[in-house]
Amino acid sequence: MSFNPTSDLSGKNILITGASKGIGAQCALTFAELNTNLILVARESRELDTIEGKIKAMGQRVKKVTCDITDKKSFDEKIASINEVDILINNAGTNAPGPLLNASEYDFDRVMNINVRAAFFVSQSIVKKMIQQNISGSIINISSQMGHVGAANRTIYCASKHAIEGLTKAMAVELANYGIRVNSVAPTFVETPMTKPFLRDKKFRDEVIKKIPLGKIANPSDIMGAIIFLSSDAAKMITGSCIKVDGGWTAV
């Protein structure tokens, strides 16, 4: 049997959470270039409108879903008319950096609700649709290098991303019988609206770069290769795994 390393995703239906900015927005534009049908989910309508407009200008099909994914009932209602999803990108996320001793219940709950709870229940809802439509789909959880290491002032975020790595493995095992693959992608620091306030601090930025053997901060486009690969048939025997796009951070 000849080897055909195809990443052809033409006609696939892709649902992306947190699609209005950063990695999510780049995912949307990259998948649009691959002739896919996009379902973009985010809370902020204006930014989502901008991404939607760019995709329509490319001649691709796109559906905008404006909702808070931490509200399961609202999310389920908004996607009720969507029957087929081939690929789910659980990208929505947030952070609340600060010392353990200063962490508030509000920040803990906010980060866990978005980073873990929402990913869990969005996956549950989409998996039901995949099973109903007999779709051997792919789920990609956007994790972080912080899901594999620890870091000062990142206790809540690290806890949430370690949880995502565990969730990825458990889902992969449970859903394998349905032909649904579940993997994660763990980036290093990426230039996004979420990281901009931290990376604006030159001292912090320099410290981050020193920890990355490749010596640079990632851009959202740097993460796309891993996401496209895991979405495609080129990765059809890969499930329960993580691709670390961290410039070598976790290798040290």
Query: What gross morphology would you assign?
Result: globular
Strand content: 5-15%
The quaternary organization reads as single chain
Please identify which CATH superfamily we are dealing with.
NAD(P)-binding Rossmann-like Domain
**SS-based class:** alpha/beta
Helix content: 40-55%
Give a short account of the largest sheet.
Answer: 7 strands, parallel
Low-confidence stretches: none
CATH topology: Rossmann fold
Radius of gyration: 18 Å
CATH architectural grouping: 3-Layer(aba) Sandwich
CATH class: Alpha Beta
Output the number of helix runs.
Answer: 8
Mean pLDDT: 96
User: Order of strands side by side in the largest beta sheet?
Assistant: 3-2-1-4-5-6-7
Structural domain tally: 1
Number of strand segments: 7
Kindly, what is the distance between the CA atoms of the first and last residues, rounded to a whole number of angstroms? Answer: 39 Å
One letter per element, helices H and strands E, the order comes to EHEHEHEHEHEHHHE
Describe the protein.
This protein is α/β, with parallel strands linked by helices and 252 residues long. The protein has one domain (13-190, 219-246): Rossmann fold. Helix content is 40%, strand content 14%. The chain has helices spanning 22-33, 45-57, 72-78, 105-132, 155-175, 196-199, 202-210, 224-231, and strands at 13-17, 37-42, 62-66, 87-90, 138-142, 181-187, 242-245. The protein has a seven-stranded parallel beta sheet, sandwiched between helices. Helix 2 (45-57) links the parallel strand 2 and strand 3 (62-66). Helix 1 (22-33) runs parallel beside helix 2 (45-57) and helix 4 packs parallel to helix 5. The mean pLDDT is 96.
